[in-house]
Structures are given as structure tokens and as C-alpha cells.
Specification:
Blueprint lengths: L1 H10 L2 H14 L2 H21 L3 E3 L2 E3 L2 E4 L2 E3 L1 H23 L4 H19 L3 H20 L4 H31 L18 H14 L7 H5 L5 H9 L1 H12 L5 H19 L4 H22 L2 H32 L15 H14 L6 H13 L10 H27 L12 H16 L6 H8 L21 H26 L7 H42 L1 H10 L26 H19 L1
Antiparallel strand pairs: 1-4, 2-3
Helix pairs in contact: 2-3, 2-5, 3-4, 3-5, 4-5, 4-10, 4-14, 4-18, 5-6, 5-11, 6-7, 7-8, 8-11, 10-14, 11-13, 11-14, 12-13, 12-17, 13-14, 13-16, 13-17, 14-15, 14-16, 14-18, 15-17, 15-18, 17-20, 21-22
Protein name: Monovalent cation/H+ antiporter subunit D
Pfam families: Proton_antipo_M (PF00361)
EC number: 1.6.5.3
């Protein structure tokens, strides 16, 4: 019986289940459709937990053999649980937030493509799912209309470039190694071959992971669509891409690690300068991705385990924060945090949910972020697991942690605590409350000293491989005195720092390179388009003019010779009459357009056949 159940689960392809639910949402009554969507994502969690390890649904695709669309190992199991769990409550939140069936259907199709990328067992399947993920996420932005349309175009352009680079990387990988395999038969990650395949892969994935300089789409796009759509966007593209980055570079890279450190600092600096609540949270997506990229770049067991743990936690608490901020926008209609204040009296449940998310992302002891962020910091710290080459990286990550505290003290202070509220509004709706506290409960559960670390030890890959001299795995303790002391230092520095910078900070509102990148991209694109169209017009005019001249010369050969002769020096040519009486020459088509196309196709086919 158990074996039969495992066999069934091996054929229960999660992306297909969720995509089918997306189609049903469009035709079923709203409540029933959202219920089907919720159940489809809950089933993803069950399949991820219970499906047998190994590659399933092996097929031949486009002539390539042994293509694995459905791989179950420690990494994909963790991704399925994280994305399925969050997706379940994101659908409930969307229903209670009056999201349309169209939004829900697109969101579920987007989730299905992200799951397809997460469960992919080879690079060929991944690149197909990667492109579908870019398309569906763009539609999720566009469907809201208004400012989201232009932002969606910029988003599509960025992800089109990134997706093309990933596609070229996969092609180069196959040319280099003769295989699309992502893992060996023994379950070890293969990674991209050095040289062109690896370079293209890092650049392409770097767009989705929001490397510094490639990140402008993130704060530009995520604040624009329906606030329920932002919850989905915050969880899937960037986190799936961070996981794929590990698959691309499983052994790490020093430059990649320092890119993560730069992301952590850069993201928090510009988050601090934002007025728009969702823009602030978007910059913090980049900052938190920095910790994941740093851990992957370090490449040690604790670095990778910490990065994956932080990915898992970030799916939860970042979406929770977008949910809480979304409720504020839903009830007040206001996006600017400086125009709010005192809302904890009006919206106590939302304030509590926000507090759980904020305490988790800032890595306060007792909440989930404390364990995973601590693992990444330990991986970089030479006093723990890091080498001396990571000393500067450790300080970059530490500065990023201080900036995270400052950002969420600012956001919570101005939205919920500062002054009396100018709004008399209701708190979150029932579905919104259920979604927020379910996700928030997971953040608390995973942070409890007696529960959180054992759960992580069972859930995260590579934990059993963590070791340093004179320290066994059972002595790895996130709640050690040293870790608690470091957390206390962070809290004290952040509280004092916020008091010092609060007033000057309130007068600043910057959108970093998007102020330059977006206009530059617009004018560069417009100039390129005009240059191409003008060049085409010039070539077209030259060809048409040449054809006309040849036709005229054919009708008037003597006059053509005379015209040529007149251009020569010392030649006297008498005037002659046109053979056609001086009337303009015309060409009369003897065949219809369809016949002409058919004849041209036949002629070109014969020419190509002769050439080949």
C-alpha cells in the first residue's frame, strides 16, 4: 500500500496540478475557484514531503533523451514545501483582498512555472520553465493597468534579457559537456562548465536575483500592481532564482560571495531612503537575497545550508510583510509611510502580523530569521567557519543587518506608532488575518530555541556536513551566548542609530539608479529603434530607386546610354525623345499576391536545394 502511494506521488507533477487549478479558477464560481487553487498548492506541500527521492517522469524531449522534469532531493523538497506553503495562504489572502479571478489564475500559472523551475532535474526543462515564469509574472503585473503597464514593460525587458542569457548558457553548457544534467546519478549537483557557460549563467540568473546594477526592475515593479499580486511576486521569482544560482555554482565563488555582501548593504541603504512602503520592502528583497548569494558564494556546507534556510525563511516573512502592508494600503488607500501613523489602535491584528514579520527579517532571537541569518554570518566570520578572505564580507553582512533593523524600525514607527491616526478604518478581513497569522506562526515556530533548530536540521540540505575543528554537529548551537550577544549589539546600535537619523531620514526619498537607468533605457531603445527604421527606409528607397532605374533603362535603352554618356567629360549627346512618349514607366503585375508568394517560395526552395 505504501509503495503504491509512493508510485502515485512520483507521477503527481506539482506544476501541472497548479496550472490545472489556474484554468479552473477562470470558469468556476469565485469561491470554489479560489478553494481549488488553495487545495492545489496544499497538495504541493504534501507531495514535496512524501514523494520518493529521485528523478521522475523521465522523458525524451525534442530528440534529447533522459529529460527529468520532476526531481526530488533535499533541495527541491525544501523548495516545494516553502513555495507550496506560502502559495496556499497567498491565495487565501488574495481571495479576502477582493482580487479578481483573472489575477488569481495568472498568479497560479506563475506559481506553477516557479515550481516547474524548482523541481526541474535538468537545464533544458529549467530554461523552459524560466521563460514561462518571466511571461506569467509580467502578465501578473500588467493585468492591474495604470502605472503597472509601463513598469511591466521594463520588467519584461529585463527578464527577457536575463532569460536569453540563461538560454545561451544552457546551449553553451550542452556544447561543452554534451548533457543537460543538473545532478549526477549519485545526486551531486553538476553546475555549469567554466568559461562561457558559467559566465552567461551567472549574468542571466543575476538579473532575476537582483545583482547590484541588474536590480532596477525590482523596486520599479513590485510596488505597482494589486497589493495581493505583490505578495506572490515577493516570494517566487527571486527565491527560485537564488536556488537556481546554487545549482549553477555549487562550489561557490569568492566574487559571488562579495556580490552578496554588496547587495546586502546596497539594498538596506536605499530601503532607508524610501517613502513608498512596498518600494522599501522591495529593496529589502535585494538585501536579503544578498545573504543567500553570499552563502552560496562561500560554498561551504554551513554557507549553503544557511543560504537555503534564509531562502526558506524569506519566502515566509517577506510575504508576510507584503501582506501586512497590503492590508494597510487596502484600508487606507495610502502608500506613503510618512502620511500614516498610529494605526496600531485601528488595526491591532495587522500591527501584530507586521511585528512578527519585522522581528523575523531583522533576526531577533526567537524568530526564524535569527537562525538562518546567523548561519550565513557564521559562514563568513573567521572566528567561526569563515576563512580570512571573508573578513570584509562578514562586516558587509553585519552592516546590512544593522540597516535592516533601521529600515523596519522606521517602517513600523511611521505606520503604526508615530502620533495619532488620521484614519478611522477597519482591521484586516478574516481571510487576510488567517493568511497573515498562519505564515507568521511558521516564522515564530521556526525561531523557537527548542523547536526551530531541530526542524531546520531535518529540513535543510548539507547540515550533516557542517563541521569545524574541535566542534561536532551536536554542538552547533544558534542560541549560544555569543550569538545572543551579537544580536543584542545589533538591536542596541539600531535603536540608538534610528533616534539619531530619524529626522534627516524623513526628508529623503531616492530611487537609486532607476532615475538614470529608466530614462537611459528609454532613449537608448527609442534611438536604436529609429536608427534601425531609418536605415531600413534608406535601404528600401535605394532598392526601389534602383529597380525603377533598371526598369526605365530596359524600356529606354538608348536614352539610358545617352544619360550615362552625358556624365562623361567632353561628350556631346543630342536630345532624344522617350520611347514611351515621356509617360512614366509602370509595371503591371500579371499574377495575384498569393501566386507571386508561391512562385517566390518555389524559386527560393530550388536555390537553397541547389546550394545545399
Amino acid at each position: 500500500m505504501i509503495d503504491a502511494t509512493y508510485d502515485i506521488l512520483a507521477y503527481a507533477y506539482p506544476p501541472l496540478i497548479v496550472f490545472a487549478a489556474a484554468l479552473l479558477v477562470l470558469v468556476l464560481p469565485r469561491l470554489l475557484g479560489f478553494a481549488v487553487g488553495t487545495l492545489s498548492l496544499a497538495s504541493v506541500v504534501a507531495i514535496s514531503l512524501l514523494a520518493p527521492e529521485g528523478a521522475h517522469l523521465t522523458r525524451t524531449f525534442l530528440g534529447f533523451q533522459d529529460i527529468h522534469p520532476f526531481l526530488i532531493d533535499d533541495f527541491t523538497r525544501m523548495m516545494g514545501i516553502a513555495l507550496g506553503f506560502l502559495g496556499t495562504f497567498a491565495v487565501i489572502y488574495a481571495y479576502s483582498s477582493e482580487a479578481s479571478r483573472k489575477l488569481a489564475a495568472i498568479a497560479l500559472a506563475y506559481v506553477a512555472s516557479a515550481l516547474g523551475a524548482a523541481f526541474a532535474g535538468d537545464w533544458l526543462v529549467l530554461v523552459f520553465m524560466w521563460e514561462i515564469m518571466a511571461l506569467t509574472s509580467t502578465l501578473l503585473v500588467w493585468q492591474y493597468g495604470g502605472d503597472a503597464v509601463r513598469a511591466g514593460y521594463r520588467y519584461a525587458l529585463a527578464h527577457g534579457i536575463g532569460g536569453s542569457l540563461v538560454l545561451f548558457a544552457v546551449i553553451a553548457q550542452y556544447a561543452a559537456v554534451g548533457s543537460f544534467a543538473m545532478v549526477t546519478e549519485a545526486g551531486e549537483t553538476v553546475g555549469f562548465a567554466d568559461g562561457i557557460p558559467l559566465l552567461l549563467a551567472v549574468l542571466g540568473i543575476g538579473v532575476n536575483v537582483a545583482f547590484v546594477g541588474f536590480h532596477t526592475w525590482l523596486p520599479d515593479t513590485y510596488p505597482r500592481p494589486h497589493f495581493a499580486a505583490s505578495v506572490f511576486l515577493a516570494a517566487f521569482t527571486t527565491k527560485t532564482s537564488a536556488y537556481v544560482l546554487y545549482r549553477a555554482i555549487p562550489e561557490g565563488n569568492l566574487l559571488l560571495a562579495y556580490m552578496g555582501g554588496a547587495m546586502a548593504v546596497y539594498g538596506v541603504v536605499f530601503a532607508l531612503l524610501q517613502h513608498d512602503m512596498r518600494a522599501l520592502l522591495s529593496y529589502h528583497i535585494q538585501a536579503q537575497l544578498g545573504y543567500m548569494v553570499a552563502g552560496i558564494g562561500i560554498g561551504s556546507a554551513i554557507g549553503i545550508a544557511g543560504a537555503m534556510g534564509h531562502l526558506f525563511n524569506n519566502v515566509l516573512y517577506k510575504s508576510l510583510l507584503f501582506m501586512a502592508v497590503g492590508v494597510v494600503i487596502y484600508r487606507t488607500g495610502e502608500n506613503d509611510l510618512y502620511k500614516l501613523g498610529g494605526l496600531w489602535r485601528e488595526m491591532p491584528l495587522t500591527a501584530i502580523a507586521f511585528a512578527i514579520g519585522a522581528l523575523s527579517i531583522t533576526a531577533v532571537p526567537g524568530f526564524s530569521g535569527f537562525i538562518s541569518k546567523g548561519m550565513v554570518l557564521d559562514a563568513a566570520d573567521p572566528a567561526y567557519y569563515g576563512g580570512s578572505e571573508y573578513q570584509a564580507l562578514y562586516w558587509l553582512l553585519f552592516i546590512g543587518a544593522i540597516g535592516t533593523f533601521l529600515s523596519f524600525i522606521k517602517l513600523g514607527y511611521y505606520v503604526f506608532l508615530h502620533g495619532p491616526s488620521d484614519y478611522t478604518v477597519k482591521d484586516s478581513r478574516t481571510g487576510q488575518t488567517v493568511a497573515m497569522f498562519s505564515v507568521g506562526g511558521a516564522c515564530v515556530l521556526l525561531g523557537l530555541p527548542a523547536i526551530g533548530w531541530p526542524v531546520f536540521a531535518d529540513l535543510l540540505p548539507l547540515v550533516d556536513g557542517i563541521s569545524i575543528p574541535d566542534m561536532a554537529i551536536n554542538e552547533l548551537e544558534p542560541y549560544s551566548d555569543t550569538h545572543l550577544q551579537d544580536a543584542l549589539i545589533l538591536i542596541v546600535i539600531s535603536v540608538i542609530g534610528f533616534k539619531l537619523i530619524r529626522k534627516p531620514l524623513s526628508k529623503m526619498d531616492y530611487s537609486d539608479p532607476s532615475l538614470v537607468v529608466n530614462p537611459t533605457g528609454y532613449y537608448l531603445g527609442r534611438g536604436t529603434m529609429l536608427a534601425i527604421t531609418d536605415l531600413y527606409a534608406a535601404v528600401d528607397n535605394a532598392v526601389v530607386s534602383g529597380v525603377k532605374r533598371c526598369y526605365w533603362a530596359g524600356n529606354n535603352p538608348v536614352l539610358a546610354v545617352d544619360e550615362t554618356a552625358r556624365r562623361l567629360p567632353m561628350v556631346d549627346v543630342p536630345e532624344r525623345q522617350h520611347a514611351d512618349g515621356g509617360r512614366p514607366s509602370t509595371i503591371h503585375l500579371r499574377a495575384g499576391i498569393g501566386t507571386t508568394v508561391l512562385l517566390l517560395t518555389i524559386i527560393l526552395t530550388v536555390i537553397i536545394w541547389l546550394l545545399v
